[in-house]
Amino acid sequence: MITIVVGTNRKDSVSQLVATQYAEILKKYGVVSSILNLTDLPHDYIISCLYENVGMNDEFNKIRTLMNDSEKFVYVIPEYNGSFPGVLKAFLDGLDRAKALAGKKCALVGISAGDQGAGLALSHFTDILNYCGTNVLAYRLRIPKISDLMTDTKITEEDYVAKIHKQSKQLIKF
Ligand SMILES: Cc1cc2nc3c(=O)[nH]c(=O)nc-3n(C[C@H](O)[C@H](O)[C@H](O)COP(=O)(O)O)c2cc1C
């Protein structure tokens, strides 16, 4: 099973739209996926789910189980202040590394308002995932100036739609 992680807890995020489009593309290749949006984290996540409270929050435990049970992931990562959102690191810190991350496989998609396409964010996040034992697909997708590429809720610029298809096919084979 592939879980697509929306790497921000910002409401109505563009990352969420990209995740939905990615899920539709995977479906075209016959692959079922589920979307985990970090807006679904408990409101008091940092207090109730980390460190001495790891594993104690039933609401978050369902998310931990989803992560444990998934073999592959897509992380859709918006560029925030030159890197990935802090909530995404806090999310990883609340997981069971051995069950949720080690030995798993993932693809990374970076999006940005500016012209970097979250390139640094993807590098920073790759370092962390590799440390935790997740294998990151070499073809990391950077999508800069995202608003120029979208019509309503979808990326419609053909080159980038093709890149999502290319990456999703690689992830399926990975
Ligand atoms: C806190 C914050 C910091 C941001 N920093 C950057 C940045 O450093 N570079 C950039 O190109 N865009 C930056 N953005 C814009 C997002 O990368 C852009 O809106 C992204 O395409 C989609 O983010 P979203 O999923 O939160 O909608 C920032 C947005 C927020 C909310």
Q: What's the total count of β strands?
A: 8
The major pleated sheet works out as: 6 strands, parallel
CATH class annotation:
Alpha Beta
Bound molecules: flavin mononucleotide
Please state the structural category: alpha/beta
CATH architecture: 3-Layer(aba) Sandwich
> What proportion of the residues is helical, as a percent range?
40-55%
Count helical runs. 8
CATH superfamily: Flavodoxin domain
Order of helices and strands: EHEHHEHHEHEEHEEH
- Beta-strand level of the residues, as a percent range? 15-25%
CATH topology: Rossmann fold
CA radius of gyration? 15 Å
User: Looking at the structure, what is the overall shape?
Assistant: globular
On the 0 to 100 scale, the average pLDDT is 98
Q: How widely separated are the two ends?
A: 13 Å
Q: Total domains, how many?
A: 1
The low-pLDDT segments are none
Explain how this protein is built:
This protein has one domain (2-14, 22-173): Rossmann fold (3-Layer(aba) Sandwich), CATH 3.40.50.360. The chain has helices spanning 14-28, 45-48, 58-69, 86-93, 97-101, 119-131, 146-149, 158-173, and strands spanning 2-6, 33-37, 72-78, 105-111, 135-136, 141-143, 150-151, 154-155. Helix content is 44%, strand content 19%. It is built from 8 helices and 8 strands, in the order E-H-E-H-H-E-H-H-E-H-E-E-H-E-E-H. The longest helix has 16 residues, at 158-173. Strands 1, 2, 3, 4, 5 and 6 form a 6-stranded parallel sheet that branches. It has a two-stranded antiparallel sheet with strand order 7-8. With 174 residues, the protein is of the alpha/beta class. The two termini are 13 Å apart. The model has no long low-confidence stretch (mean pLDDT 98). Flavin mononucleotide (FMN) binds next to helix 1.
